[in-house]
Amino acid sequence: MKISALRLFNVKRFAGRGVAIEGIEGGVNVLCAANEFGKSTSFEALHALFFQPHSSGSGDVRILRPYSGGSPLVEADIVTGAGRFRITKQYFAGRSAQVTDLATGRLVAQADEAENFIAGLVKGGTAGPAGLLWVRQGVTGIERRSKSEEEDEREVRRTLLESVQGEVEAVTGGRRMTEILSATQQALSELVTATGRPKAGGRYASAIEDRDRLIGDEQKLSGEVTVLREALDQRASATKRLAELDSAGDRQERRKAVEAAQAAFDAAKSQSEKLKAAEAEFKLALDRRDVAEKELLTFRAAMEKARELRQKRLAAEDRHRKAEDKRREVNEAIAKATTDVEAAEAREKEARDLLTRLDAALRAREAFERLAQLKDQLASAEATRQALEQGEAELSLLKLPSSAIDELQDLDVEIARLHAVEEAARPSISVDYQPDAFGPVTMDGNPLSDGKERTYDGQARLSIPGIGTMTLRSNRPSRSDDRLEKAQARRRTLLSSMGVDDLAAARKRQVQAQRMDAGLGELRGRLSQLAPQGLPRLRENVAAQSAVDAGALELKADPAQVRTSLAEAEERLTAVRLVRREMESLHGNASDAFIAAEKESAALNAEWTQVDSILGPEEERAAREQQLVKVRDDRERSRADAEVHAERLRATAIALDSAEAVLKRARSVEEAAEKEINRLRETIAGLNAGICARADEAVEEKWRETTDALSTATARVAAFAKEVTILQRLASALEAARSQARELYLKPVMTELTPLLGLLFDDVSITFDEKSLLPHAIRRSGQEEDVDRLSGGMREQLSVLTRLAFARLLARDGRPAPVILDDALVYSDDDRIEKMFDALHRQSRDQQIIVFSCRQRAFQRLGGNILQMTDWQP
After folding, report:
1. Which CATH code, of 2.70.50.80, 3.40.50.300, 3.20.20.80, 3.90.1170.50, is assigned to 2-146+816-872?
2. 446-447, strands of its sheet edge to edge
3. Which of 296, 302, 554, 787 could, after both became Cys, cross-link 628 (CB 3.0–4.6 A)?
4. Model confidence over 568-586: pLDDT tens digits?
5. Rounded distance between C-alpha atoms, residue 73 and residue 45, angstroms
6. pTM: predicted TM-score of the whole model, two decimal places
């Protein structure tokens, strides 16, 4: 199961509003934000959605309710092997639970059926896998908690280990071992106390009391038995045979034979297991040898690739240098043309500005002639303000979009190119006249000039004086495309939308707009100078003045001459812009060549970087190759040693079937003797019955009954004693075997945990507690330390790593569950937390991990899929 989105409405601090966390992916997902942002609220809402029924009113549900009341709504999108589903729950008023198939929009389940659907996902509630992997803020899982919580989580870990470790089930660490040990301890507690004494009121103690009472009765009646000797002799004979069979020596001999056969069978079975382990080691050594061989071949291939790339890079550098030189030449030409354009633009602007100033001087002169000092100033200010407003209105009409002008320029260039292409393809004719020619040749009534070419379309009719008429036909097919017409139509549309006749007019309007904008700036400055305190204050000053003096402004330049200079500057500007446009066309080819050279160099450099990263420094490559050869040879020797070891075990293996046959025969001998003993006891019982039937006195009958009862009681006591001994030995043996098999029992989690520990710690090993199945102690630098004595940072790191290991075991067992950490790394330093980030990414290859944290700066280096909270309305 993977979670793809979470949404909540009216939950805790989000009273009356909703938030959503979308785009949750596989791998590492991070929601990092400040305190009181809603991270723990999201965790608690998600926890309630999966573990609290919609009809519940427990404390875990009530805590979701805001202070203002209302009905919390929680919704999550999940992805399972069966498809994509949306789970929705609402608590308190309008309580409901729904599961919707996102692919079809179909309502899959609701109410109790929806709860059953969710229970199938989490498999066990808070005591299931998800309850084990979802870490609340401030909880590591290693600290001391209530006995019931620790027992629940221990049971989850034990069940998980038993389900994923099949070999342990067959040896001493699985569910069968637990069941046998539990049954053994229960049976033993029914017979004896913890100190080994018979338990008062138990069956064993009752059997001992019965035996002691019957011993006293038998001793009292034995002196009175004097009759029925023949029957007694027969009984004695049977008893003798019974004694022979039931003697301690014979029993011990038969028992030893069974035990010897059992030992031989166990040895054969153990040797078979060793052979399997040796074959596994041989396969591992073979795989390691193959990996070393592959690394060596890769390194040598990289060496060869480096030699090839070195030659290619030299050639590419030469081509790159030539392309760069060519581009530099074109850039210099463009720069010169640009300088000429800028100079022409400056001269054109200078002439235009001069003309503007002259016009302004004429207007000012007229104003100065009409107005006296302050009146003139007021009139100038008002005129300036009016000119400013009018100029701004005209500027808004005069402005043209720069993109439209650029498009028009591109269209003019394209039309000129198409005209040139068409003109180049048209037939032409020219005439060179002799000095004594009769007269000019005419084409379609127009005379042809001497030596000048003229083109024509379709056909042309030449009139040659003194000769006649000549008809020329080109027979050229008409153009198949209409690109020129389309370009001209687009140009007409663009010119019409801009309100100009051609590009020059558009450029001119653009320059006029720029000039007008600059002039408006001057007007604004002038208005602020004329009326720094505003026009009302200026009018007051005018009214306060009784007299003004007038003066005239002399003109220092001829306006007609300035206009002529402006026209010449514009012509010069047009000419230099054409030169720059020609240079820009050459710049495209040079740039393409340069880009191709750059691309080739970048590709070769990328290949060189990849090869160089494989090979390492130049001076270390020979040593590196020797090291790879040495590693391959060492692993080859290890493979050969493992193969020899496996062959040696295979040659000395004991036949398991033969040992099993011997064991079966020894057991059959023991069983046959037991059957005969039982038969003899039945015979003796029959004789006793006959004696009792023929006895005249009840005392012998009572004596025989007492004897039989005593024998039965004694056997029962012996059986109980034997049973107690066997149960004690069995319990001790099972405990010892389970302790010895601890490493094998915990092998799955240690296999997942060892590489994670290697990311954080050097030379650190962990010991797990057999009962709690949690880290109990660590060993580093030869010293063993209890987990309780470690720092808070290291305890939380061990907790997270252990949960990641159990998460991988769940995935291997076909029960993947997301790992959710709510501020689970609060005590880790900068170095350790980055290594923890590496561990999270290592485990996220096939595992979903969701991290909530308030440490924004530290967790910025975690990477992964960054989650955001957005507003949501259900």
Report:
1. 3.40.50.300
2. 446-447, 442-443, 459-464, 468-473
3. 296
4. 887 877 887 787 777 777 7
5. 9
6. 0.37
